[in-house]
Amino acid sequence: RFETLRGGVSRDIEYTEKLEGFYQRIEGKGVEDFAADSLLNDYRWLLEEYRVSVFAQKLGTAVPVSEQRIEKLWKQVERQNKRF
């Protein structure tokens, strides 16, 4: 475990920064926003799955997830909502 930790700090920082960027897109959204917009809610859950995939790989994810899938889903959210 210690060997894994030594090499992973810079990687963890990189993934944390990427996640922060993804989460900024939905900053300020409330429960009612996610309940009213299924694509937005899917985006939020895909971010949680991505978090698991990069920080807790051994747990596995419920759905396939990647940065490309996150970007693709965000484009769908934007097209649907035009307000972002």
Descriptive report:
The protein is mainly α. It has one domain. It contains four helices and no strands. The chain has helices spanning 2-24, 31-36, 38-55, 67-81. Helix 1 runs antiparallel to helix 3 and helix 3 runs antiparallel to helix 4 (67-81). The protein is elongated and about 45 Å long. The N and C termini lie far apart (42 Å). The model has no long low-confidence stretch (mean pLDDT 89).
How would you describe this structure in keywords?
4 helices; 84 residues; single chain; elongated; mainly alpha
Short description:
This protein has 84 residues and is an all-alpha fold. The protein has one domain.
How many β strands by DSSP?
A: 0
Average pLDDT, rounded to a whole number, is 89
Low-confidence stretches: none
Separation, N- and C-terminal Cα atoms: 42 Å
How many domains, in number, for the residues? 1
Structural class from helices and strands? mainly alpha
Could you give a short account of the major beta sheet?
A: none
Strand content: under 5%
Q: Please state the CA-atom Rg, rounded to the nearest Å.
A: 14 Å
The succession of helices and strands, N to C, reads: HHHH
Instruction: Please state the overall shape, judged from the principal axes of the Cα atoms.
Output: elongated
- SS summary, helix count: 4
Provide the helix percentage: over 70%
Write the layout of secondary structure elements.
Blueprint: H1 2-24, H2 31-36, H3 38-55, H4 67-81
